[in-house]
Write the structure tokens for this entry.
Amino acid sequence: SVLASDFGQLTAECQRMIKGGAEWLHMDVMDGHFVPNITMGAPILTCVHKGIPDIFMDCHMMVAQPEKWVNDIADAGGALYCFHIEATSDPLSLITAIHARNMKAGVAISPDTPSNAITDEIGEKADMLLVMTVYPGRGGQKFLERCVPKVAELRSRFPEKDIEVDGGVGPKTIDVCADAGSNVIVAGTAIFNAPNAEEVIQLLKDTVNTAQAKLAVK
């Protein structure tokens, strides 16, 4: 998660993470409406994409009207457009619009939103499901373990789907997430502030791979 990076040298920070083994860069887009914070928008993503053309930008849209920004984010080079289910009244049409712009579609749920808000129909149509393990809006918050059962519930319904966790995830909290079935891990502070980012990235990956192998045997 770039929320924990030095925004003054964002492209260099993204390059450092890719070099360290990160496969996706989680771009935290906040509009000051859906969440009480403003971070970055399409113009900044465009600059990062220009500096790193092959970057996979996982754009987490913490915005009030997610329908409004699909074209801008696609034009900026976004690879995945993840909107909050709480912010839209028509998630299925939104997923269609995202796919029409050749982006993957993600659906996020905040800590107080139950996992059944993602219906079978929505979940099947989306490419990724995101369970927030902190309240969206700012980095460096404490991991909320009560959100982990939602990962397991979604994994039981969608065995083949990418399921992402975001918020307070690091070496101390990765195990419960991985064991519940999460295979996409967002970490910000835990990686950017680590003395050795590469080691932390490898640890998170190894933990997920081990857990996925165990789940496959089940």
User: Anything to note?
Assistant: The radius of gyration is 16 Å. The chain has nine helices and seven strands.
